[in-house]
Task: structure prediction
Amino acid sequence: MRHRQREEIPGQNPCLSCGACCVGLRASFYWAEADDAVTGGVPARLTVRVDAFRRAMRRGRKGRCVALRGTPGRRVSCGIYDRRPSVCRNFQPAWAEGPAGARCLEARARLELPPVHHGNENPFTEMPVRQRASPSGME
Ligand code: SF4
Ligand code: SF4
Result:
């Protein structure tokens, strides 16, 4: 989920015309990432409690994250891009990560979108370097 809200040019970043992982997967994360625990955190009103330790992004119509804007498969953005949870920051796009992006390909396939292959697309060089961590939490 490397789509941003504003300045990117559609076509440069495959995520900007996809959003499949924001539809088919539930983004869950440690509860204290939310803004009722940390200033500037994930908006708690957009989350649900999963268990004693985890929250998840609320999902709306067709299972899409309530923060997702636009039309999946055409043009999308994250409405809370700067405050999105770590699981979203760390999700591995197939076009950037190769085989490590298998879940990206699975998500795209569920929306009947063609696979994006490592190196076949113009990488989105303006994106901030994200932390490398486990993508677990996308269920
Ligand atoms: S499924 Fe892959 S290409 Fe689509 S938005 Fe998510 S990371 Fe990007
Ligand atoms: S918070 Fe943003 S990046 Fe994460 S699933 Fe929702 S729309 Fe996608």
